[in-house]
TrEMBL record:
<dbReference type="InterPro" id="IPR008042">
    <property type="entry name" value="Retrotrans_Pao"/>
</dbReference>
<dbReference type="GO" id="GO:0071897">
    <property type="term" value="P:DNA biosynthetic process"/>
</dbReference>
<dbReference type="InterPro" id="IPR043502">
    <property type="entry name" value="DNA/RNA_pol_sf"/>
</dbReference>
<protein>
    <submittedName>
        <fullName>Integrase catalytic domain-containing protein</fullName>
    </submittedName>
</protein>
<dbReference type="Pfam" id="PF05380">
    <property type="entry name" value="Peptidase_A17"/>
</dbReference>
């Protein structure tokens, strides 16, 4: 039993806490309240009526593991820790006599559950046979809570990784399943990704057939409510783009938000028509982002590290400054240049000169290149920084002693 619910006012939380005494007190208070008002039988009759009219389906017990799977269930609790995880159950259906039970497994939904899951998986990945060390290392670097996202070079490595990963985690009674891949083999129908299939990977949409990434806009639903500062901020934050390839698009509403701050408009006050029209025009064109795809693979084929170079571009204007990092890959037959990550910032409300904004762009470009090279474990690759601001380049290359740069 993962959660217990009580009838309550809509403005109050109905989910019971994980504290045993609090659960029991709230449950008894609810039962007593229903008894005093004579609504207990009516309350229980509502669910019976729903079942009879097929508004709710009775779930029969199913022992098929493919029916549902929670990875936390594989993690047991010691007898000492079980006293901290309790829940109530109505014995023989009598709500007046709740009985206390102890959890024997880690409960899904607790704040500590993701940590316990990750720590358990890391422990078993670190204690593997010598011939599984490569796969174990790849697993160690590729898990995000209970999802594994990684890349291999060819089909042979794909099959090896799948089989060895299952073997490693099966020792902890974890079941790896739901495998998806972008490998396509025309001679093997089983290895051909379905046409048009896409899945969610770390907040982005991954199109298996083209092996490309797009933005997930399913949460950006249009509505007819008045345009307010809160609405603009909420809409922008619904666009999850960790790579930053939509920066030119998401910058527009951020500039509008800055205009709202200059006008000192409150969060829920309807904005002037000049700002509202700009925002509505931007939102109508937002669906075009679905057509923008970027390749998932940064390094096609097996290229030597010596053929790779980071290129960092920095630029600024009166309203914003930005930086982006590309990876240039040279091979015998072709040269590719792929965007890795980009960041943009709205210029501060305090007026700054263009050269100083260019220096800010160089600053975030330097930090971005450092984090990208560290995350990709390519710290030794050459980096080339590009800026069209002679003033910023002079300040950076100058040998004079300057005051600390603070912003």
């Amino acid at each position: 039993m993962e959660d217990m619910l009580l009838v309550s006012h809509g403005s109050r939380p109905s989910s019971l806490t994980h504290v045993q005494k609090s659960r029991e007190r709230r449950l008894k208070n609810c039962i007593n309240s229903l008894k005093k008002t004579g609504n207990l039988e009516a309350y229980e009759g509502v669910f019976s009526e729903w079942l009879q009219k097929s508004h709710r389906k009775v779930k029969n017990y199913c022992n098929d593991k493919s029916d549902h799977y929670l990875p936390h269930r594989a993690i047991g609790l010691s007898e000492l820790d079980r006293t901290y995880l309790k829940f109530l159950w109505w014995e023989e259906g009598d709500p007046a006599k709740p009985k206390v039970f102890l959890y024997r497994r880690v409960v899904f939904g607790l704040s500590c559950s993701p940590y316990l899951l990750g720590a358990t998986i890391r422990f078993h990945r670190q204690n593997v046979p010598h011939n599984f060390e490569k796969t174990a290392t790849l697993l160690l670097e590729s898990f995000y809570v209970d999802n594994c996202v990684t890349s291999v070079d060819d089909h042979e490595e794909l099959e090896k990784f799948v089989e060895e990963s299952k073997t490693i985690l099966s020792t902890a009674k974890f079941e790896l399943r739901g495998w998806e891949h972008s490998y396509s083999d025309p001679e093997s129908y089983d290895l051909l990704p379905p046409e048009g299939k896409s899945i969610s990977v770390l907040g982005l949409r991954w199109h298996l057939k083209t092996d490309s990434l797009t933005i997930d806009l399913r949460d950006c639903v249009e509505d007819d409510t008045p345009v307010t500062k809160r609405k603009i901020l909420s809409t922008v934050h619904k666009i999850f783009d960790p790579l930053g390839f939509t920066c030119p698009v998401t910058l527009g509403p951020k500039v509008l938000l800055q205009e709202c701050w200059k006008l000192k408009v409150s969060w829920d006050t309807e904005l002037p028509a000049s700002i509202s029209k700009k925002f509505e025009r931007w939102r109508k064109e937002l669906s075009k982002l679905n057509k923008i795809e970027i390749p998932r693979c940064l390094i096609p084929g097996r290229n030597a590290p010596g053929n790779l170079t980071f290129h960092v571009f920095c630029d600024a204007s009166k309203i914003a400054y930005a930086a982006c990092v590309f990876l240039r890959c040279e091979s015998e037959n072709s040269t590719t240049c792929q965007l890795i990550q980009a960041r943009c910032r709205v210029a501060p409300m305090k007026s700054l000169s263009i050269p100083r904004l260019e220096l800010l762009a160089c600053s975030i470009g330097a930090r971005l290149s450092q984090s990208v090279s560290s995350d990709m474990k390519l710290e030794n690759l050459p980096k080339i920084f590009w800026s069209d601001s002679a003033d910023a380049l002079y300040w950076i290359k100058g040998t004079e002693t300057w005051a600390p740069f603070v912003f």
